[in-house]
Every structure is written in C-alpha cells, then in structure tokens.
C-alpha cells in the first residue's frame, strides 16, 4: 500500500470505542487534570433547632393560638367611691328630700294684703286713704290675673322685704317694678313708695327706743 492510500484510509477511518484517545499537542497544560464537581454531596441534617424570637412577625403568624400583644393599654379597674357609714358602721342611705310645695296665688295674696294694709295704716291720715285705694287696685288685678308672672313675683318680694323690715331691699325691688313694668304699675306704683317711707319711719323709731 502506498503512502497516499494509507493517509486516505486513516482519514476515512472512524475511531472505535476501544481506540486510545488522541493526544493533543497543547503546551503547558497537558498534565493538568481539573477536578470534577461533587454532585451527590449530602448536607448534614441539623440536630438542634436554632432559637427563634417569639415576638417576631413570622413566629406570631405561624402560631395561630397566640394572640399578638395589643398596643392599647389595659384600662385600670374602677375604684368604688367610699360609702358613708354611720357610727355603728352601717351604710348611710341618702333619701332625697321631697320638693317643697310652692304657695298658691291666693296664699301669696294673703301675705301681700296683710303686709300692705299694716304699713298703710301707719301713714299719716291725709295720705292713708289714697294709698289704701291704690293698693286695693293691686289686689283686684292680682285676683283677676291681670298681672304678669314676673310682676307678681316682684310684688311678693316687696311684701317680704316689708315684713322683714328690710328697707334697702324694698327700695331695690320697688325700683325694679317701676323700671320693668312702668305701664302696669302707673296707678299704684307711687303707693308702694309710701309704704317704704312708713317702714323707714318704723325702723327709726325702733333705733331711738333701743
């Protein structure tokens, strides 16, 4: 066989499974063998569970039975007030007092008439009849319910001041009557002023006698 036929035969020949590997002509790395990666390396199973933070969100979410702490403070229990007790130690129960009944219109008029007539009789005889005539108009208007409620209260307070012999308070109430109800008391307002004069004269006599 000629050399040309040998080359052509070697080029067309396929290597078999038991043919030795071809040696490449690379310089410097011919003897270096790279290590193969370990594909079947086993990871050791942990023998002890690492400690976990119970307050972490992950731990709270994993434990359905645990309730996360609330940011709202717990309200303090109410302290009952001390109950007053008597000398024997028994609790004292405060019973509300029954409201006092206000006097009726007729009862108020009785006091007004009694006081006004009393001080009218202490005036001089020349003034007594005119004053008595004017205060009688108050009695008539009161009975016929012709006076406003506020004016009725002022008249009753005025009679109380005369009864208690408080001429300063009587002057204050008389001024309120004249200023607030001038048109209603035009006929008998001056008569109340005469009753104040009678009260002042009575007080002066008591001071002199004392």
From TrEMBL:
Residues 68-207 form the SRA1/Sec31 domain. Residues 66-78 have a biased composition (Pro residues). Coiled coil: none annotated. Pfam families: SRA1 (PF07304). It comes from the Eukaryota. One of its GO terms (biological process) is regulation of transcription by RNA polymerase II. Residues 1-78 are annotated as: Disordered. InterPro entries: SRA1/Sec31, Steroid_recept_RNA_1. One of its GO terms (molecular function) is transcription coactivator activity. This is SRA1/Sec31 domain-containing protein. The lineage of its organism: Eukaryota, Metazoa, Ecdysozoa, Arthropoda, Hexapoda. One of its GO terms (cellular component) is nucleus.
């Amino acid at each position: 066989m000629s050399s040309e036929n040998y080359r052509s035969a070697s080029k067309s020949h396929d290597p078999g499974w038991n043919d030795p590997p071809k040696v490449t002509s690379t310089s410097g790395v011919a003897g270096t063998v790279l290590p193969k990666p370990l594909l079947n390396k086993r990871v050791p199973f942990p023998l002890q569970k690492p400690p976990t933070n119970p307050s972490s969100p992950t731990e709270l979410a994993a434990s359905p039975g645990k309730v996360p702490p609330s940011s709202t403070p717990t309200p303090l229990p109410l302290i009952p007030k001390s109950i007053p007790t008597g000398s024997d130690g028994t609790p004292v129960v405060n019973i509300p007092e029954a409201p006092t009944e206000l006097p009726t219109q007729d009862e108020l008029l009785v006091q007004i008439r009694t006081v006004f007539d009393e001080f009218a009789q202490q005036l001089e005889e020349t003034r007594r009849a005119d004053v008595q005539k004017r205060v009688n108009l108050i009695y008539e208007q009161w009975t016929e319910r012709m006076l406003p409620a506020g004016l009725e209260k002022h008249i009753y307070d005025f009679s109380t001041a005369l009864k208690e012999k408080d001429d300063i308070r009587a002057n204050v109430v008389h001024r309120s009557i004249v200023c607030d109800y001038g048109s209603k008391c035009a006929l008998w307002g001056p008569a109340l002023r005469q009753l104040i004069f009678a009260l002042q004269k009575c007080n002066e006599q008591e001071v002199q006698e004392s």
